[in-house]
Amino acid sequence: MAGGQHRSEHHLAEPAPNDQEFAYLLRVAATAPDHGNLRPWRLTLVRDEGRAALERCFADECAEAELRHGEPGESAQRAPLLATLVFSPQRNDTGRGTPVPEWEQLAAASAMASSLVLLLHARGFGSIWRTGRFTESERIRNVLGLHQEERLLGWLYIGTPQRLTPSKRRVTEDVTDRISVFAP
Ligand SMILES: Cc1cc2nc3c(=O)[nH]c(=O)nc-3n(C[C@H](O)[C@H](O)[C@H](O)COP(=O)(O)O)c2cc1C
Questions:
Q1: What is the pLDDT of residue 65?
Q2: Torsions phi, psi of 128, nearest 5?
Q3: 130 CB under 6 A from ligand 1?
Q4: 157 forms bridges with which residues in the sheet?
């Protein structure tokens, strides 16, 4: 990472941050913008046997999807640590003030995840945020213990980058077309 830039890493191996280091980085990531400080998210870390079990679920889902669409499979073995991103909208209708709507809470969860990715990279770890096609799967929701009102936002695949070729510095693109100046 250079100058706040981010580059996803597709080939990730050991080491990944341990639980303590992950908790520390998450503590910092939790300072991302969050209206009402509701922390409308939680993460389930998947390592070792958990990864093998999730891999079996992915395989079961893939087998069905392959039959249906002929699509290739997804793998939980892509990285030593998968941080499951769960959106947990918080009821916050206290009767005092306007409640924070769900879309703002989703934005807060996204901001936290994005900060976490940058922090991981600053610490020398690599990651990639992937959804695959499992975020709506009942089987995977159940195995990971999601509540009905929660939403699976995918996984941060985390580890140490295994670069076959030196990482290319990202060429930033001109996005000035996304900026306008209010001219009343
Ligand atoms: C919510 C979300 C879901 C994503 N899901 C996938 C995915 O399933 N597979 C994938 O290859 N990239 C996915 N991406 C994109 C990658 O995280 C990343 O942005 C992309 O690989 C570009 O990498 P770069 O940072 O090197 O430009 C997703 C991104 C977001 C924000």
A1: 66
A2: -145, 135
A3: yes
A4: 82, 128
Give the Å distance between the CA of 82 and the centre of ligand 1. 14
Asked whether the predicted pLDDT for residue 41 surpasses 70, the reply is: yes
Which residues are CB-contacts of 170 (< 8 A; sequence separation ≥ 6)? 5, 6, 7
pLDDT, residue 73, reads: 58
Rounded to the nearest angstrom, the distance between the alpha carbon of 96 and the centre of ligand 1 is 39
Distance 146 CA to ligand 1 centre (A): 22
Q: How far apart are the first and last CA of the chain?
A: 39
Q: Classify 158 as helix, strand or coil.
A: strand
Sign of CA dihedral 6, 10, 11, 14: positive
Residue 2 pLDDT: 47
Average pLDDT value for the chain: 91
Domains by residue range for the chain, with CATH? 12-164 (3.40.109.10)
117 pLDDT above the threshold of 60: yes
- The pLDDT, as a whole number, for residue 171 is 86
Which residue among 130, 137, 151, 155 is best mutated to probe the pocket of ligand 1, counting the most ligand atoms within 8 A of its Cβ? 130
Hey, which of 2-11, 35-44, 50-59 has the most confident mean pLDDT? 35-44
